[in-house]
């Protein structure tokens, strides 16, 4: 928690305690919705109840759009149907869809009854799309013009519909069948001659996304072409909605968070008031840990199979943690670069060979340096040149294996259509632990007579 946030929460607590409604109302009015969300998240429900009536309808709509699942539930408790109707009226369709998608079926149906019939039908259609697809994150509040309209007519229409549109920087041009035929910017429209037609100004090369395209792919397109929004169309080319850059920022954060959880061998902990936090944490993490437990048992099996070498030269045990940790570290570094590259589109099947070759070159240099260093340490520490050689060679081979595994495995998983992030962290580490121990003890067995 930042100091500024702590200070604000403390200030709100004091204002509520002193019951100075006028000052509290002024403070609520001057704060940005995103700041209010953080404060409402931190305050107890009794205090939230005192604040919520002081928030304007428009700001409350923005707060619900910004808030997480838990805070939404906290706020909805204190909103009457009359006030909630007004708040939903002030929200954009994609934000209402997100809100309804986080509620139970019964709660969602109850809220839909508070929305105008025409808008409710539209929101039900949006709810029908996969929540991680272009259709699931698009908004239907956009500006579209018929191609035969004059600039004068278009500007007049713009004055009428702009207040309800989420994005006004682009004007999408459609024909009589509502097919996308072009796009023009607000600047192009207002700087053109009033008598010109929209079709004479529009750019016919429009970047669009299919309604079923995954949200991560949409994010790549918006990032690649530096767009503020992108139109969503169906297979017939009909304009269905738009996705704005602020929604894409949320998608990028969501996808990055999801990948981080996967790389840690866990999944996001979704909490509701009814859920048991401890039980939820166990259910989310235990399956991954059980899989990894059996993987780690393989390491024990390798050591058992070479227990003769270990009993003969006890000093071999001193270097097991170093080899396992360094292999895991190097493998995770290579893996992270690949997973990130695949996520951003910088890496693909076309350049896997080039990237793997470069990683092997880097790995060879790292393995030579680190292998030589650990060999020298083993020699000085134990006074056994052959032990130094075995440890150094094992480190060299383990690091090369780690680089190849950390680079190749995500590509293989991606080519099979699965998420490469699942290959991360614990899985790669376990794999490298087993292979590293096998390499180490195989070398130790080969040179056993000289080690003793």
UniProtKB/TrEMBL annotation:
Gene3D superfamilies listed in its UniProt record: CBS-domain, MgtE N-terminal domain-like, SLC41 divalent cation transporters, integral membrane domain
Domain CBS: residue ranges: 138-201, 202-258
Cellular localization per UniProt: Cell membrane; Membrane
Classification via Pfam families: CBS, MgtE, MgtE_N
Keywords assigned by UniProt, alphabetized: CBS domain, Cell membrane, Magnesium, Membrane, Metal-binding, Transmembrane, Transmembrane helix, Transport
Protein name listed in UniProt: Magnesium transporter MgtE
PANTHER family: MAGNESIUM TRANSPORTER MGTE
Ranges annotated as spanning the membrane: 360-381, 388-413, 425-448
Subunit organization: Homodimer.
Family from the record: Belongs to the SLC41A transporter family.
Membrane association type: Multi-pass membrane protein
GO molecular function: magnesium ion transmembrane transporter activity; metal ion binding
Job of this protein: Acts as a magnesium transporter.
Annotated SMART domains: CBS, MgtE_N
One cellular component (GO) term of this entry: plasma membrane
């Amino acid at each position: 928690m930042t100091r500024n946030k702590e200070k604000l929460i403390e200030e709100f607590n004091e204002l509520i305690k002193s019951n100075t409604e006028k000052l509290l109302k002024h403070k609520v009015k001057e704060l940005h919705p995103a700041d209010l969300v953080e404060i409402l998240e931190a305050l107890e429900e009794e205090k939230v109840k005192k604040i919520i009536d002081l928030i304007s309808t428009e700001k409350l709509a923005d707060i619900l759009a910004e808030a997480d699942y838990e805070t939404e539930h906290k706020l909805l408790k204190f909103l009457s149907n009359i006030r909630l109707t007004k708040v939903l009226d002030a929200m954009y369709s994609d934000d209402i869809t997100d809100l309804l998608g986080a509620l139970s079926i019964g709660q969602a149906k109850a809220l839909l009854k508070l929305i105008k019939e025409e808008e409710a039908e539209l929101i039900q259609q949006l709810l029908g799309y996969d929540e991680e697809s272009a259709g699931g994150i698009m908004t239907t509040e956009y500006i579209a013009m018929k191609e035969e309209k004059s600039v004068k007519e278009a500007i007049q229409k713009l004055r009428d519909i702009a207040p309800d549109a989420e994005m006004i920087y682009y004007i999408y041009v459609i024909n009589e069948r509502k097919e996308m035929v072009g796009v023009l910017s607000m600047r192009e429209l207002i700087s053109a001659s009033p008598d010109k037609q929209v079709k004479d100004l529009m750019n016919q090369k429009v970047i669009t996304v299919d309604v079923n395209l995954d949200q991560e792919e949409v994010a790549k397109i918006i990032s690649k072409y530096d767009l503020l929004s992108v139109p969503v169309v169906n297979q017939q080319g009909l304009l269905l909605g738009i996705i704005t850059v602020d929604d894409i920022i949320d998608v990028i954060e969501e996808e990055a968070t999801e990948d981080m959880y996967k790389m840690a061998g866990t999944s996001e902990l979704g909490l509701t008031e009814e859920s048991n936090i401890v039980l939820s944490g166990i259910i989310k993490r235990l399956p991954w840990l059980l899989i990894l437990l059996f993987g780690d048992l393989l390491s024990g099996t390798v050591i058992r199979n070479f227990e003769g070498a270990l009993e003969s030269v006890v000093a071999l045990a001193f270097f097991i943690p170093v080899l396992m940790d360094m292999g895991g570290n190097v493998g995770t570094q290579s893996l992270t670069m690949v997973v990130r590259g695949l996520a951003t589109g910088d890496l693909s099947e076309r350049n896997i060979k080039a990237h793997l070759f470069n990683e092997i070159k880097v790995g060879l240099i790292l393995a030579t340096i680190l292998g030589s260093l650990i060999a020298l340490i083993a020699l000085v520490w134990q006074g056994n040149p052959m032990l130094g050689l075995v440890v150094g060679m094992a480190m060299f081979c383990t690091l090369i294996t780690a680089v190849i595994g950390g680079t190749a495995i995500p590509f293989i998983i991606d080519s099979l259509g699965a998420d490469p992030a699942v290959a991360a962290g614990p899985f790669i580490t376990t794999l490298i632990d087993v292979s590293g121990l096998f390499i180490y003890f195989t070398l130790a067995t080969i040179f056993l007579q000289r080690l003793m």
